[in-house]
Specification:
Elements: E1 3-10, E2 15-21, H1 23-28, E3 34-38, E4 46-49, E5 52-54, E6 57-63, H2 67-75, E7 81-82, E8 84-89, E9 100-105, H3 108-123, E10 127-134, E11 153-158, E12 165-166, H4 169-178, E13 184-188, H5 191-201, E14 208-211, E15 227-230, E16 233-236, H6 237-240, E17 243-245, H7 251-258, H8 262-278
Parallel strand pairs: 9-10, 9-13, 10-11, 11-12, 13-14
Antiparallel strand pairs: 1-2, 1-7, 2-6, 3-4, 3-8, 5-6, 14-17, 15-16
Length: 282
C-alpha cells in the first residue's frame, strides 16, 4: 500500500510542507509522537515530527537538508505515493491543564511541534504562548503555517531583526520568566538552543520538556543510535521519548551524537545534487 501525497508547498527557501494520506496514523497520533517515512523500497528511514493529523491525513514540515529530503522535494509531487509511513511512534506528552504553557522553536521540526502541541494544550484549557524563531525574514513561514491560530500570545523573532523582534526565543523566554508568566515550557528545534534553554530554566525550577528526535536513525529502538544519558539512566529517544525533561538530559553527549554522520550525509547529498544537475533538474 502506498501513501498518497495530497498537498505540497514551499514554506521558505529551505523548508517545505508535505501532507500525506495515512488514516491509521491520523486516528491514533497524539502530540509528542512522531512518524517514520520511507520514499521507496530501498529508501532510508526518516523520523519526522507531525504538524497536523486530521481528516485521515498527516502534515509534516521538512527541511531540504539531506539526500532523502531533497529527493522528496524534487521527485515526488501531489498524487504520487510514498512507499511507507510508520507510526505513530514514541510516547505522547501529557496534555492537561498546566496554566501558562510556552512552546519555543527555532528549526523545522520544532516549528511543527509548536503548532501541534499548543493546539492540544489550548483545547485542554491552558493559556498558550508560542515563540517561533527564524534566521531572517526570508526563512519565515507563511502566516497560515505559524502557530498563531492556537496561541493566546505569539512571538516571532529573527536573528537579524528583519521581521518581528530581533533575537532568539531564549531572549523572550527569559523575559517571560522574569515576569512570572511561565508554568511549563515545551521546546523543539536546534539541539544547541535546547541545551541553552535547559540551563536558562534550571535555576527557576520551571518544568522544561524538549524533543531529542533529531538524533534518531532507525526510529524503533533497533539501532541504539539515539541512546541518551538521562540522569542516572540510559534512555532511547525513539522508544522512551522523543520529548524529555531537559534538566535530566546530558546535552554534551546529545550534541556529540548529533554530529556522527555528518560526513556521510554530506557525501550522499553532494552525489544526489550532481545527479540532479546532470539531469537538468536544477
Amino acid at each position: 500500500m502506498g501513501y498518497r501525497i495530497t498537498a505540497k508547498q514551499d514554506l521558505s527557501p529551505i523548508d517545505y510542507f508535505v501532507e500525506v494520506e495515512a488514516p491509521h496514523i491520523a486516528r491514533a497520533w497524539k502530540p509528542g509522537q512522531f512518524v517514520v517515512f520511507i520514499l521507496h523500497e530501498r529508501g532510508e528511514r526518516v523520523p519526522m515530527s507531525v504538524y497536523k493529523a486530521e481528516n485521515g491525513k498527516i502534515g509534516m514540515f521538512i527541511r531540504k537538508l539531506g539526500k532523502t529530503s531533497l529527493q522528496l522535494y524534487y521527485e515526488f509531487n501531489v498524487g504520487d505515493e510514498l512507499y511507507s509511513i510508520v507510526g505513530p511512534l514514541g510516547k505522547p506528552i501529557k496534555v492537561k491543564h498546566y496554566g501558562n504553557v510556552v512552546f519555543a522553536s527555532d528549526a523545522v521540526c520544532g516549528q511543527a511541534e509548536n503548532y501541534a502541541t499548543l493546539k492540544a494544550m489550548k483545547e485542554a484549557g491552558n493559556y498558550t504562548i508560542s515563540i517561533q524563531s527564524f534566521e531572517n525574514k526570508q526563512n519565515v513561514y507563511p502566516e497560515e503555517f505559524l502557530a498563531k491560530p492556537v496561541a493566546d500570545e505569539h512571538y516571532l523573532t529573527t536573528e537579524d531583526g528583519s521581521v518581528g523582534r530581533k533575537g532568539h526565543y531564549l531572549d523572550v523566554v527569559k523575559e517571560l520568566i522574569e515576569r512570572d508568566r511561565v508554568d511549563i515550557i515545551f521546546a523543539g528545534g536546534k539541539l544547541g538552543s535546547l541545551a541553552k534553554l535547559a540551563e536558562l530554566t534550571r535555576p527557576y525550577g520551571i518544568p522544561t520538556i524538549t524533543t531529542v528526535r533529531q538524533i534518531m536513525v532507525d526510529g524503533t529502538g533497533m539501532c541504539g543510535s539515539c541512546r541518551i544519558l538521562y540522569g542516572d539512566e540510559i534512555k532511547f529517544a525513539c522508544r522512551d521519548g522523543p520529548m524529555f525533561d531537559a534538566h535530566k538530559v546530558d546535552w554534551e553527549d546529545v550534541l556529540r551524537r548529533a554530529n556522527r554522520f555528518l560526513e556521510q550525509e554530506k557525501l550522499a547529498k553532494e552525489r544526489y545534487l550532481e545527479e540532479l544537475r546532470a539531469r537538468g533538474v536544477i
